[in-house]
Amino acid sequence: MLVPSLASAQDVPIAAEPVPDADAASPLEGDAAFRFRRFVIAHDNDGWLLDRFNPEDRAYTGGGQLLFGFDGRWADWVGERLPFAESFGDAEFALAAGLKLQVFTPDDVRDVEDPDPDERPYAGYLTSTFAAQRRKANTEDHFQLDLGVIGPSSLAEEAQTALHTSRGWDKQLPDEFAVNARLRKTWRVPITGELHDGFAMELLPDLSGDVGNVYIRGSLGLTLRAGLNLPDDFQTPRIDDPGSMLGGWTSPGIYAFVRGQTQLVAYNAFLDGTAFHDSRSVDSEPFVNSVEIGGVWNLGSYFGWRDAELIYSWTALTDEYDNDDLFDSYGTLQLRIGF
């Protein structure tokens, strides 16, 4: 009987343990796969207490949003696969997810069962929002995808008639699955350094575009903000365009802002009608301008929050369609909590 010698056994090569590839690791692995960074609750209304300048229930009459922001390993994994990732090097990344409802009505909502076909149609828009953000130095890129529904299934009729008298919802836009993608790039341009007691001013120019069966449009915006201890973030948030999930306040502060925007509109489902079903419609204006004025107050750090922002703004728009001869505006109130 032959017994293998110890020497021969030692001569047998032993396979080396594979070295884990850090780049191949699942984004879900690790203690910091997710870090909850921001919670946002927002409400738009063209009446109630938010728009005392023009308290009429018409056009974009109101909306609401809940939004959550995250960073961590999964956000990094997604961000490193965004377009042109290699040119950004060591950037910061964040993700956002939320739900929003927007309500649109014609100018006359007083017990009119068959609204004027020359006025914008009743419409509701309920959608989930998914976004990824990338920031480096004084630039931020925002990639957003909205998936939802236009029509009765949005529950806009129930939301609007709970507070107002309106009988024209039988003529609203029909149910249609809604997909909309948005890309926005924002720059932060300091005008002054920190002056006396932390006062500073800066500009935030931005370019954005939408493609989908909700909007096809391009936008150019410019925000001027001035105040005490400005946060190191980008873009004053709105329901249809979330603000920064990264950055924030380093100390208590307050600021005022004014924002102007010009939109080149090729398609707006809430005016031009739904893309895949017959519906009421009006001819949308190719250019829509808006101005937004508001203020942001950092309430401070409580209960483990990094910061809490209370935001109020008022927005006025130029005519959105051919027979839109009335002044349209709405107010916005938001609470944004950073962790």
Topology of this structure?
Layout: H1 6-11, E1 35-45, E2 59-71, H2 73-79, E3 92-105, E4 123-136, E5 139-150, H3 156-161, E6 176-187, E7 189-190, E8 199-212, E9 215-228, E10 254-268, H4 269-272, E11 287-298, E12 307-317, E13 328-338
Antiparallel strand pairs: 1-2, 1-13, 2-3, 3-4, 4-5, 5-6, 6-8, 7-8, 8-9, 9-10, 10-11, 11-12, 12-13
Q: How is this structure best described in words?
A:
The structure is a single chain. With 339 residues, the protein is mainly β. The chain has one domain (34-338): Outer membrane protein (Lipocalin, Beta Barrel). It is built from four helices and 13 strands. It has helices at 6-11, 73-79, 156-161, 269-272; strands at 35-45, 59-71, 92-105, 123-136, 139-150, 176-187, 189-190, 199-212, 215-228, 254-268, 287-298, 307-317, 328-338. It has a twelve-stranded antiparallel barrel with strand order 1-2-3-4-5-6-8-9-10-11-12-13. Strand 7 and strand 8 form a beta hairpin. The longest helix has 7 residues, at 73-79. The chain is globular, with a radius of gyration of 25 Å.
Largest sheet: 12 strands, antiparallel, barrel
- What is the number of helical segments per DSSP (H or I, 4+ residues)? 4
Q: How many domains, in number, for the residues?
A: 1
Q: What gross morphology would you assign?
A: globular
CATH superfamily: Outer membrane protein
CATH class: Mainly Beta
Strand content: over 45%
- Low-confidence segments: 1-17
End-to-end distance, in Å?
72 Å
Radius of gyration: 25 Å
Any idea what the CATH architecture is? Beta Barrel
What is the residue-mean pLDDT, rounded to a whole number? 84
Structural class determined from secondary elements: mainly beta
